[in-house]
Amino acid sequence: MPSVPLPASGGYIQAVRESSEAVRIKANIKINEEDMTRLLLSPAFTSTYQRLRTAHGMTLPLNFSSVAQELNVLSVLSVLNFASGYRVPLHVATGRGAFDNIRAFVFAAYISSSSGGDDYFSARGMQAITPPAVADLMRVTGSIHVERPHEDIPGVTVGELGGPIWEIVQIVARTLNETGAALAQGGYPDLGSFVLEALKEGEKAKASGGDACDVALERLVRCIPAFRDAAPVYDAPVYCFKKALLTLHAVALRFGPAGKTPTRAVPAPDTTRLPIFSDNVIPSLLVHLGVLDLSAADPALGLPALFPHARDPAVLAPLLAASPAPAPAEVLAQMPAKAKEPPKDGPRVTEAQAFTLRGAAIDVCERLVAHGRTLAAGADPELAWLGELMPPELDAWLWAVAKDRPDYRRLERFALTGTAYF
Description:
Elements: H1 12-26, H2 33-40, H3 43-46, H4 49-52, H5 67-79, H6 87-94, H7 98-114, H8 123-128, H9 131-138, E1 145-149, E2 157-161, H10 164-186, H11 191-207, H12 212-223, E3 230-233, E4 236-239, H13 242-255, H14 281-288, H15 313-320, H16 329-334, H17 351-376, H18 391-404, H19 406-409
Antiparallel strand pairs: 1-2, 3-4
């Protein structure tokens, strides 16, 4: 991907917000108060938000010998939090989606490392891991070959490495190699040690009036290539930094004062006001839920054609209604077993389209939070909780509800292949 200049020191979070707003406006993606009100007051939102607002899926049901070891594995899971463009072939190959495959890989690599195998999670181990080793740990060795006609013998086919699964295996290996090389060059034994140092620098900056998150974010992005989640659109950078921001939030959820494993050994920053961690799911869902309006968006980017039925009232109304009640257990028990069908592939997008939609999602979530405060300030006391919305929790709801409802799981998400950013 083309490189873009990094933001000015001290302005990384501001650059995410400002570049996202700028690209949405340039692309003429509309946001209006009526659409935001409709979503925030819908049964789909009000009946599930409290349950799903912290469900980021970054839990690690593993046994760790130390906080440092857990921080390292959590950091590796964060840097590998991508592969969305390969959701369908991964479902076909393994029966699991993109993130579930990445998480399974991390678990397998951790267990192998802990049981005397290769130490995949040290800087040197990451630097040395090979695509075949990744394929083996992902359990996809049977899906990394394609057949082609033999060049000289008619009617004979030969197998060779190739296809979408081999492509994502190579991206995972390359991401680990680059991350390990950057860590080794900086003298860090593993990713967790580097993340901890970045957090401590943020804590030190906070003590002198600085922004702990911004300082830590800058360290992550400057050092690790896979965290430099940015691209040029309309000849200007769009900064998303999804995985770096998510790393900070995952640390806070795990080790912060309100986390599941609070500890003073990890100076977790306050991440409640961070921008969202924009991937492909959240922008797609915001389009389907009628909040991001592409109907008059820049035709030169081809945005209006990506989701042609998104604002159809007949399609939108059921999505904003309460989630359909699940069938009773006794009914499900009598239903015939059926192989799990892979999801339908969504629209394939260009880099410019992807970063425009991801940026627009960051901007609209900032506006949804502000609009929630406006609604909470009204006369209805039952809406007071809307004044407490925060972008990371809104992000968690959007990401989790996309998996929570059967009708939402069937909604198309855009896909960009060849990227290690989301």
